[in-house]
Every structure is written in C-alpha cells, then in structure tokens.
Write a structure and sequence with these properties.
Structural class: alpha+beta
Shape: globular
Helix content: 10-25%
Bound molecules: protoporphyrin IX containing FE
Largest sheet: 5 strands, antiparallel
C-alpha cells in the first residue's frame, strides 16, 4: 500500500483476463461444482488435454450484455494441483503459506476451528484425502439440459485425460448441485435472502462503481491501492509463480451442512420459552412473529433481507436490499458509541460479526478496517419442509473469494469463532461470544483455541415504557447449526494462465 505518498493513477485490470466470478454473481439457476484429482485414473494423465477442452467455456469478467451465456464455467486449482502441473515450486514456493499448507493445517484450523463432526479428518465423508483434491470446476447453466451438457463435457474430458473425479457428498451421485429454495435463487436454507452485501468491485457494465482499493485487495498483481497485497505478487519477469498468479484470485471453497430442523426447532423453542415470551410481551408479537424476531436477531437481517439497523421492528420490502447503514451512533463520540445500536442488532449477530462496518474495532485486530470477502454461495440439497429432520444432506456451497485467504477469509472466520474484534466490555459482554449463526461451537478439550469463549447469545432489549431499564434475552448453550463438510483453497487463475495450462505457452 502507498502510505504517505500520492497514489499513482489506478491500473485497471483487463476484464477479459479475470475469471468472471469475482466481479459478478452469475444468477444462473443451474450449477454444479465438480471436483477432480490429478491422481491418474489408470490411463496417462494429460492435464493439457483437459484444460484445452474446458478453456473455450471459461467465463471472463467481460460484459456479456444481453447475451448471457447458456452455459459456462470457472476453474480453481489447489496448491497440490499447481505442484503437479509444474506451476508451483516443490520447495521455497512464493505462494502464501496458508494456500500451500491447506485448510486442514494447524495454522488454518486456529481460525476455522473445525471440531468434532466438522474436523478435517471427517471432510468429504472420507470419500478421498484432502490433499488429493486438485481442481474444482464450477459449471453454470440457464437450463437443466445445458447443465447436463456442460457436466458431460467436463467429465468426459476428465475421464479421457486421466483425471479422477472425486465426490464430496454421500447422497445422490455425490456431486454438489445447486438447489433453489422457495423458487428464489437468492434464498438459502434457513430461509434468509443472501448475496446482498458485497465489496464494490464494479460490474462489467459499470466499472465506474468500482472501488479501486477493493479491487486491488482481491485481484493478484495490483499493489498500489491494496491494503493486504495479494501474493505471489511482484516481479512477473523473474518469478514464474507471480507471473502465473497475476490477475488471479483465491477461492476458499467451503461446504457447510445446515441443520435446518435443529435451527427451526431452536427458533420455536425461543419463541415459546415463557421467560422470553414474558420479557418480549411489550412487542405484541404472536408466536410466528416471535420466531421471525429471533431469526432476525441471529443474523442481523430479517429473512427478507431488511437490516435490523434500518428496520428494527419488522421486515420492510423497501430496505430488503439495503447496504447503506452502520453500527456507530452518529455524533456520539464515546467508547460506548456502538452500544445503542445493539438494541436493534446484537453484537454477535452474523452480519455484524462478518462486517462490523463503522463499529469500533479492537486495536491490532482492526488495523486494516473490517475485513471484506466476496461471497458467491448457493444452496445444495432439497428444501426441508417442517421441523423434523429427514436425514438429507443440505447446506451451503460457499465460494469465498479473496486476495488473501489468511488476511480475509481466515481472519473473518477467526472473528466468527471468537468475537474479540471489538472491545466487548462496551457491550456488557464479559466473555467473548461467537457468531450466533456460524460459530463452530467448541467443547472441551478444544477450548484452548479460544480462551474464555462462551456459547451464550445476548440480545439486548429496551422496552420503550421503561427506557432507563435496559434488559436482555440471554440464550446459553447455543447449538451448532452448521457443520463443515469440507474445505479447499483454490487459486482461480487468469485466462492467460489457464491458456498456458492448455497449451504450454504463456502469452
Ligand atoms: C451456512 C452458512 C451461512 C449462512 C446461512 C449465512 C447467511 C448469511 C445471510 C443471511 C447474510 C445476510 C445477507 C447478505 O448480506 O448478503 C449473510 C451475510 C454475510 N455473510 Fe454469511 N452465511 C453463512 C456463512 C458465512 C461464512 C462462512 C462467511 C465468512 C467466511 C460469511 C460471511 C458473510 C458476510 C461477509 C456477509 C455480509 C455482511 C455485511 O456486509 O453486512 N457467511 N450471511
């Protein structure tokens, strides 16, 4: 980052060289995420053949205008995959440590904290070893038939070029297909609208809306405005790894099982708990409305998307897509300036943890400001009707895009598992809680990862009839609503780099 200097004019990356996923969400109604190992499948491995078959379908960030592709794909490659391809060094690689070591490493697990069922040793239903996952292909289509066709192109090529497809799920054919919830691609299991708040990377059709610092924090090779300096960057003429990575970005690909029955039953239990009902009687809500109230407090947005800060009492269609709000109280300059807003949105609500916005950050934790990531998540598994678990696997196919897995994705996960990013005494919270929705709840003996952490969720409330007597709903022993099924750290290389893998020639 340029500190104390006048920054140079922004360098605009060539959209035709960037895989499009980082710049825009695709909104195709059909997608499938296919995973491959370069471990030979019995015939000679020919990765060039595989990448040259797929290359014509790779979607860049160029504006498609009115011609939305009927089908298209993007490609990510793990560090082990890059080593097999001869791109990453076997020793002294300049790729970042967390990418080299993988998400199951001790260092990454310090932030991700996948315990018990979520432990890396249980990932992918033990269908394959974490280190044997080398390539993830994300296929998108406008129709079911077009999806079948592109899956066939990918899998036929993989098979004939000696790659082994690996299957992350135990149900269906084991692949990760997108599921549409409530006939709305923006809805995810648990019933919330997702994909609202994103960093300002511009859209292909409107680059003026781009924030250069945001872009430079995501795409590798643009250090002028970047705070986190995505790596490997630097001299592309002397470092082949930096040359390959230029115009690429990282994808923390994370499959998260959602316990929908457990979640629905939890909300119902809270909405019928006599102490809660008595304390909240001033709101005049019926049982269904109380369920929605608790659902909103866990996330910081109502299920329609309205942020609690803008619409504290009820969801409002007018604010459903709003991003323009903060948590600090305007004009109040005191260490407690963020506190009044917690009567609307609790300190540990998912969106408040995932992006504390203008909230005061703990010195050291918040030197870089709130961490940002691009999310391209979609649901997998059929929707659950009712509150009884049917044993079906369902959850989120999470694509968390960033320029630095450690400084963005893992940093944020650390905050979610251990809410130490803001001075918590201000919020009358004695021990660090966890993200109310996401935390991987630790049980002894794992507690030493998060000293003093509690699984208590505190919801401050203020009855307008007794404004001098603030109160709170305290829920102890928050259940684990989400379990990690697997994680892969991938580089999403530029189109030139993918073309190199297809041809052996770097343009
Ligand atoms: C199954 C797991 C998850 C569910 C159900 C979930 C749900 C949601 C919902 C409903 C929103 C509000 C809609 C929006 O702002 O787009 C949201 C926002 C967000 N989530 Fe998640 N999420 C999950 C996992 C994660 C993970 C793993 C991360 C980070 C690594 C994350 C980071 C964020 C961020 C950064 C925001 C935007 C916050 C803001 O800018 O206000 N989420 N999530």
């Amino acid at each position: 980052m340029m500190l104390g200097k006048t920054p140079p004019p922004p360098v605009t990356p060539d959209n035709s060289n960037i895989q499009g996923l980082v710049i825009r969400g695709y909104t195709h109604p059909f997608s499938c995420h296919l995973m491959f190992s370069f471990k030979p499948n019995g015939i000679t491995l020919n990765t060039k053949g595989f990448f040259s078959d797929l290359y014509p379908k790779v979607q860049s960030a160029v504006d498609w205008g009115n011609n939305k592709p009927v089908s298209m794909l993007n490609i990510g490659i793990t560090f082990y995959g890059l080593q097999i391809l001869g791109v990453a060094q076997k020793s002294q690689s300049t790729f970042p440590d967390e990418f080299q070591q993988g998400p199951w490493s001790v260092a990454s697990q310090q932030s991700l904290g996948d315990f018990n069922d979520s432990a890396p040793s249980n990932w992918w239903y033990n269908n394959f070893q974490n280190a044997d996952l080398h390539c993830v292909v994300h296929a998108y289509a406008l129709t079911d038939t077009a999806l079948t066709d592109i899956i066939s192109l990918i899998t036929t090529s993989a098979k004939s070029n000696g790659l082994t497809e690996v299957f992350p799920l135990k149900s269906g054919d084991g692949r990760l297909y997108q599921s549409i919830i409530d006939n709305n691609p923006a809805k995810i299991h648990f019933g919330y609208t997702d994909g609202i708040s994103e960093p300002a990377l511009g859209t292909p059709a409107n680059m003026a809306s781009r924030n250069q610092a945001d872009l430079d924090n995501f795409v590798i090779g643009y250090p002028d405005y970047s705070i986190i300096d995505p790596a490997p960057s630097g001299n592309v003429s002397t470092n082949p790894e930096a040359k390959f990575a230029f115009d690429g970005f990282y994808n923390a690909f994370r499959i998260l099982y959602q316990d929908v029955a457990g979640f629905n039953n939890f909300l119902l239990a809270q909405a019928t708990n006599p102490t809660n009902v008595a304390k909240l009687s001033y709101l005049g809500l019926n049982q269904d409305e109380l369920v929605e109230w608790f659902a909103a407090k866990l996330v910081g947005r109502w299920r329609n998307g309205s942020p609690l800060i803008l619409s504290p009492d009820a969801p409002d269609p007018a604010t459903a897509q709003s991003e323009d709000f903060g948590y600090a109280t305007a004009g109040v300059k005191s260490p407690n300036q963020d506190v009044p807003s917690s009567f609307k949105c609790p300190f540990s609500a998912h969106t408040r943890v995932a992006n504390p916005r203008d909230q005061t950050l703990t010195p050291g934790e918040g030197n870089l400001g709130p961490v940002r990531i691009v999310r391209r998540g979609i649901s997998y598994g059929v929707e659950l009707e009712g509150n009884t678990d049917d044993g079906v696997d369902r959850g989120l196919i999470g694509l968390f895009l960033c320029g630095s897995i450690a400084q963005q994705f893992e940093k944020l996960y650390g905050w979610m598992n251990y809410n130490n990013f803001s001075p918590k005494p201000n919020f009358s919270v004695k021990n660090p809680p966890q993200d109310a929705l996401l935390g991987n709840r630790p049980t002894s003996p794992n507690l030493n990862n998060y000293p003093g952490v509690v699984t208590t969720f505190t919801i401050p409330i203020q009855n307008p009839a007794t404004p001098t007597q603030p109160d709170s709903i305290v829920i102890s022993g928050l259940p684990e609503f989400i379990k990690t099924r697997g994680t892969a750290y991938c580089l999403m290389p530029s189109l030139k780099a993918l073309n190199y893998l297809a041809t052996g020639v770097m343009a």
